[in-house]
Design goal:
alpha+beta; 4-stranded mixed sheet; 4 helices; globular
């Protein structure tokens, strides 16, 4: 866990740990750390630091999914901004709270999915 604690931020990428062993060794350790409740898997090679839920005691991320998705894309070198519905709500042009987390990726098509339980982050590009 000491290598995970050293990583700044809430997101741990598999690439952060690649120098510590082979791909199978890193995968095995990550599965053990997830099982121990110290990390939560969000998607392929993307993990978030976790804490026990005050209600159920099960591991949950320390930050909301929106913040984690933003940080993950920045760590992967993808420029992001708020999706149309979220931007309209933030600017006061719409009073409906967006039900889905949507990020605009500045013309780049992203196939990576970040998921937490039933919630999934969607990515838009070009025409938003």
């Amino acid at each position: 866990m000491c290598a995970i604690a050293v990583v700044n931020g809430e997101i741990i990428l598999r690439a952060d740990l690649s120098g510590l062993g082979s791909a199978s060794q890193v995968g095995r350790v990550l599965r053990k750390v997830v099982a121990a409740g110290q990390l939560v898997r969000l998607g392929y090679g993307t993990y978030a630091k976790a804490q026990p839920s005050p209600l159920s005691g099960k591991p949950i991320p320390r930050q909301p999914l929106e913040a984690l998705a933003w940080e993950a894309m920045e760590r992967l070198g993808v420029e992001v901004s708020l999706g149309k519905a979220m931007a309209d709500y933030a600017a006061g042009r719409n009073h409906q709270i967006p039900m889905r987390t949507s990020l605009h990726t500045a013309g780049r098509c992203i196939s990576r999915q970040l998921r937490l339980g039933l919630r999934t982050v969607t990515y838009t590009h070009d025409g938003r």
